[in-house]
Write a structure and sequence with these properties.
Largest sheet: 7 strands, mixed
Distance between the termini: 40 Å
Strand content: 15-25%
Structural class: alpha/beta
Helix content: 40-55%
Oligomer: single chain
Number of helices: 12
Radius of gyration: 23 Å
Shape: flat
Number of strands: 11
């Protein structure tokens, strides 16, 4: 089945926002018959009735309002993708140079950069995506103005500010024996099991190591070391072994039952995501604005 196109989703969102197909069509610069045809096509693709059409006008059905809410999020993700891609293209010569670790770059930073671009459209932003250890090195050596890390630290020589929180989760494929457990794993069981892990220096790897140390167990036993969350996720889905990964990175797979979360007792897998910049330096201009936006977003 062909999926819905973005223009049709924008149209549906505008019908929800503006209250009529005619006004939504005008906002998109298309004729009302064309808008109605697009909505009918979208209804056929999804197998749902989205719009109630009466002599008094059109309004979204309850299903239509739910789909419109989801469409809002899809379009926001697409905007973030475009903003992030633009930032990656302009790493050199940018007025604001940013480095971010993988989880932050995938789920948070594009939206923050997008807001900076909306309020300061002449600001060129360059984004480098690397692991947390490398982010800190780039900030320390002045190669970027501001960094975002997910490792617990400490970060000598750097000022830090909390911008978000995250939680790691143990995941396995549905056929794994842990998927049928009725009791949570213990810290010792997790530490004794070879895991699919990120490379040394990644925030996720450092968070797991620190959590196991606090629980009084040994370090992680790597089964595979991979360079991205998507690689770790796909390795687990294929049956390579369990992993500890950000729950942000497996929401769709858990909802679709391609991965199963496993509870763990005695291990705190929560973490704080932070902005970092050189200690003793006061941020100014776009860097200060970006930090303020990031901090405000968690309020």
């Amino acid at each position: 089945m062909t999926g819905p196109d973005l223009d049709s989703l924008r149209l549906l969102v505008l019908v929800d926002d503006l209250g009529s197909v005619g006004q939504a069509a005008t906002a998109l610069g298309i004729a009302q018959p064309s808008a109605s045809k697009r909505l009918s096509t979208l209804e056929r693709q999804l197998g749902l009735s989205l719009v109630d059409r009466t002599r008094r006008g059109s309004a979204l059905t309850p299903d239509g309002r739910v789909i419109a809410g989801w469409a809002h999020r899809v379009l926001a993700e697409v905007d973030g993708l475009r903003t992030g891609a633009a930032a990656l293209r302009t790493q050199r010569g940018a007025k604001l140079r940013v480095a971010a670790s993988m989880t932050l770059a995938e789920h948070f930073v594009p939206a923050w950069i997008g807001e900076v671009k909306r309020t300061e459209p002449d600001t060129d932003v360059g984004l480098e995506v690397v692991n947390s250890e490398h982010v800190a090195n780039l900030v320390t050596h002045g190669r970027v103005d501001l960094g975002f890390v997910e490792s617990p630290g400490p970060w000598p020589g750097l000022s830090t500010r909390r911008v978000a929180t995250d939680r790691l989760v143990v995941v396995v494929p549905p056929g794994h024996r842990w998927a049928r457990r009725r009791r949570p794993l213990t810290a010792a069981e997790l530490a004794a099991t070879p895991l699919v892990v990120r490379e040394p220096g990644s925030g996720t790897r450092e968070t797991v190591e620190a959590a196991l140390r606090r629980a009084g167990t040994g370090p992680v036993k790597p089964l595979l070391e991979l360079g991205s969350a998507s690689a770790v996720r796909n390795a687990v889905i294929s049956g390579a072994g369990p992993a500890v990964i950000s729950d942000l990175d497996v929401v769709r797979e858990v909802a679709g039952r391609r991965l199963v979360p496993v509870a763990v007792d005695g291990v705190d897998l929560g973490r704080v995501l932070r902005a970092v910049w050189p200690a003793g330096r006061r941020l100014a201009g776009p860097a200060a604005d970006l930090l303020a936006l990031a901090v405000k977003s968690r309020a």
